[in-house]
Write a structure and sequence with these properties.
It is a single chain. The chain is α+β, with helices and mostly antiparallel strands. The protein is built from seven helices and ten strands. A ten-stranded mixed sheet has the order 1-2-3-10-4-9-8-7-6-5, sandwiched between helices.
Length: 239
Amino acid sequence: MSFQYNLFPNQIDIEQVDKNVSVQELRSLVEKANTEIDQNPSIHVRVIIYTEDESYDTLHSELLDYGYNLFAKKYVYQKQLANEQMLPTYYRWEAVGMGETTENKFLKVWEACMVDSANKASTRPAEFQLQDVKDLLGDNWQMSCRIIYQGDVPIAMTIPHLEPGKDGEGRIYYIGSLPTVRGQGLGQLVHAASLFMLQEMGAVVYEGSTHAANLPMQRVFKKNGCIKEKRIATYYKGM
């Protein structure tokens, strides 16, 4: 199989996992997703394909014909996790349910981190994206939703997690810093700490992505030892 198909309560992921894909295979999976949408109109679908694949132009046209919208082109980075760096002692983190970090407070910090982000803004509010996190991670979602504090002041948030269905692979669903602290090198620090968190969770490899236009985040990946592996495009339907 050149694609992986995952069905969650409110989202379907169709992700390319191998090169030289079959256009017919993608068409079959998109038809399968359409059947799910017909039965549950609240479901949205995300499709990820390699832009360097020789079939990309054909796959792109197929998705447009099925009513998908191109959201962004991204770079994917990977790193084998070993001896990652924890937060310096003058910072700390709390997950939802710890201390004063409630779900509502986490959402407010997430929404603030999305303001003027270098990544293309999502059309879906943080509240809906958090529901996607809950659907993806199940009962363990709270432990992955973390606010980074300097003293008692929130400065950033991160959602490190083990990717379901991929043994030992860690990802960060979303990571961001508040506008008031940007430009101070915190992005690299929080990303490095998130890699440490993933290692503590049992991940042995990290895979992350950022938009092609987000040069600051690309620099963060490189400074933290991540290697660019591929280029992808993400498409959405039902959002």
